[in-house]
Design goal:
InterPro entries: ARM-like, ARM-type_fold, CTNNBL1, CTNNBL1_N. It is found in: Nucleus. Keywords: Coiled coil, Nucleus, Phosphoprotein, Repeat. By secondary structure, this protein is an all-alpha fold. It has a domain of 129 residues. Helix content is 68%, strand content 0%.
Length: 579
């Protein structure tokens, strides 16, 4: 961004450095009093008497004010190599207030003559750079809202500059107030900064910095590196506010602030892949997780179709580099959250999401494991019946069972493990068992009969694998309970159960549920194979029955309590059928 272009003003190029407006007083004096090649006479006016580009000199009052500003700036510059102290910071903020007001006054007075307020524009821009050094000194942050300095409005004034007509000023104000300050404060690990951080969060929420951040995003041109970085950091600011807030409704507030959720969706929709798109996809998945309201909004804005089209890019190609891997995984996570809202599952079905996921699995690309995760989400629960039926109709079982028979190795790039893969596969099969009926369910059951019951043997192998995992998990639960006891905390049943689920109990429950379904299918050869395999491993149906009963007892509560109770009774009936 070039402030000169915006205001049709060409700054002096003889002293142009990284920023043409960062001209120190020493530079001014050297230029004015005859450095080599200088075309000015040695009788040139001192810095505080410099005229603007049209030749109009400052008044006596303006020159006096300029002298005072230079004196204050000199005091600040003298301490630039060291940390700012409170006295210097107070002077800095007071001077900032003067420069801001002067710029505002001149903009009003000379609205049609930008050259007449250009000097004040430069001064304000340079002053923001001087304030920037406070970003690494959290102990001085309270001065931003100190009532004895500018009536406590320093932070508010900085935020207000975000809507300054001059885009350079606005960009710098945003970077300073919303990003640099907050970022650096969050980087501080000292406990004494925690309270300052909390106050800063409150101030940002109070003055609606979220809307300012979204406004920043909408105005940034990502073809320019500095603006792309500003957009990236603005998203980072929003994430920091979410992480630091104690407000349970913060996700909803952030999503609604300046239509941030919709902006994220639109940004993800654009074809250009850069760090902003990757971060936008990540934030989209964060805002969708566990928020039915946000899931509903995205569904209404054709978000399911948008996410599917973005993921189609990875159907036949692997992501290039870590950036594209992160993008792909974030898009999958967002889609998994979106389809948690039941009406969106119908949209997923209508948009042929199952076909895309099935093709991704067949292609054996890096997207395969995440595609399995999506299928697991859309076929789960009572709301997954339509997708379960469709999945069998599109020959999804033909794609699914080869992966059931052989677990692929861990994918180091995506982080998907063998356990993740096995959990997704058996969970999909378990959901299909629940939701299918008639001939479609029979097709599923027959898979475990064909090829001399090979898939039944594989299922029982997985049963013993995860049963052994749970034996080891019990030791970990006991160890964790002992550690908590030393800290004076008692591990309750819910904590212990959650830890067991994390260690593989959920996968074991799904495996054993499938076993009881097969055992109760009425196919004698399946019963015989199950009993034979268990006997060979010196086990029995009793173990499986206890796992399924425990699963039924812990189904939990939900919106449809009647359906949950029916499922609980069905599971218990199946378990008792193993007698």
């Amino acid at each position: 961004m070039d402030i000169g272009k915006i205001l049709d003003f060409a700054p002096d190029t003889e002293l142009r450095g990284e920023n043409p407006f960062e001209r120190t007083e020493i530079d001014r004096q050297k230029k004015a009093y005859g450095e080599p090649n200088s075309k000015k006479s040695k009788l040139a006016l001192p810095a505080y008497m410099e005229s603007v580009s049209d030749g109009v000199r400052m008044t006596e009052a303006e020159m006096e004010e300029r002298r005072q500003e230079l004196l204050a700036k000199a005091e600040i510059d003298n301490g630039e190599q060291e940390d700012m102290d409170e006295a210097a910071t107070r002077k800095l903020f007071l001077l900032f207030d003067k420069r801001m007001k002067k710029n505002q006054d001149q903009r009003i007075k000379y609205a049609q003559k930008p050259e007449k307020y250009m000097n004040s524009e430069m001064d304000l821009y340079a002053h923001l750079h001087e304030i920037k050094q406070l970003a690494t000194q959290p102990h001085l942050y309270p001065l931003f809202w100190d009532e004895d300095i500018n009536s406590g409005l320093t932070l508010v004034n900085l935020i207000s500059l975000s809507w300054h007509e001059n885009s350079d000023i606005a960009a710098m104000a945003r970077a300073l107030t919303m990003i640099e300050t907050l970022y650096d404060l969050l980087d501080q690990e000292e406990e004494e900064n925690e309270e300052i951080c909390k106050v800063l969060y409150q101030k940002y929420m109070e003055h609606d910095v979220l809307s300012v951040a979204v406004g920043t995003l909408k105005r940034m041109d990502e073809t320019k590196n500095e603006e792309m970085e500003a957009a990236f950091k603005s998203i980072g600011l929003v994430e920091s506010i979410i992480e630091g807030s104690d407000d349970q409704d913060i996700i909803t507030k952030v999503a609604n602030s300046g239509n941030f959720l919709i902006w994220l969706l639109e940004r993800v929709r654009r074809r250009t892949i850069n760090m902003v798109k990757v971060y936008a996809a990540e934030m989209l998945s964060v805002l969708l997780q566990g928020s039915e309201e946000n899931q509903k909004i995205i569904g209404e804005k054709k978000g399911v179709d948008i996410l599917l089209k973005q993921l189609a890019y990875f159907k036949k190609r692997n992501p290039k580099g870590q950036e594209e891997i992160e993008l792909m995984e974030n898009l999958f996570d967002a889609l998994c959250s979106v389809v948690q809202y039941p009406p969106n599952r119908k949209k997923f079905l209508e948009d042929e999401g199952l076909h895309l996921m099935n093709l991704m699995i067949r292609e054996k690309k890096m997207s395969r494991n995440s595609a399995l995760k999506v299928i697991n989400h859309v076929v789960s629960g009572y709301e997954g019946r339509d997708n379960s039926v469709k999945y069998v109709e599109i020959l999804g079982l033909k794609t699914l069972f080869p992966l059931f028979m052989k677990t692929p190795k861990r994918n180091k790039k995506t982080g998907h493990t063998e356990n993740d893969h096995e959990e997704a596969i058996v969970s999909i099969i378990g959901n299909l068992m629940r939701n299918l009926s008639g001939s479609l369910k029979r097709r599923l059951v027959d898979k475990f009969v064909e090829l001399d019951h090979a898939k039944s043997e594989r299922l029982l192998e997985l049963h013993f694998k995860y049963a052994e995992k749970m034996e080891a998990a019990e030791e970990e639960v006991e160890q964790q309970a002992a550690i908590l006891a030393q800290e004076g905390v008692e591990m309750d049943d819910d904590m212990a159960y959650a830890l067991r689920l994390e260690k593989g109990l959920f996968t074991l429950q799904q495996i054993d549920y499938i076993i009881v379904e097969l055992y109760g299918s009425g196919i004698e050869s399946l019963r015989e194979r199950i009993i034979s395999h268990l006997s060979m491993r010196k086990s029995s149906l009793k173990q499986i029955r206890e796992v399924v009963k425990d699963y039924a007892d812990n189904l939990g509560d939900g919106e449809n309590e009647e359906a949950i109770e029916q499922e609980r009774n069905r599971l218990l009936e199946l378990a008792m059928g193993l007698m």
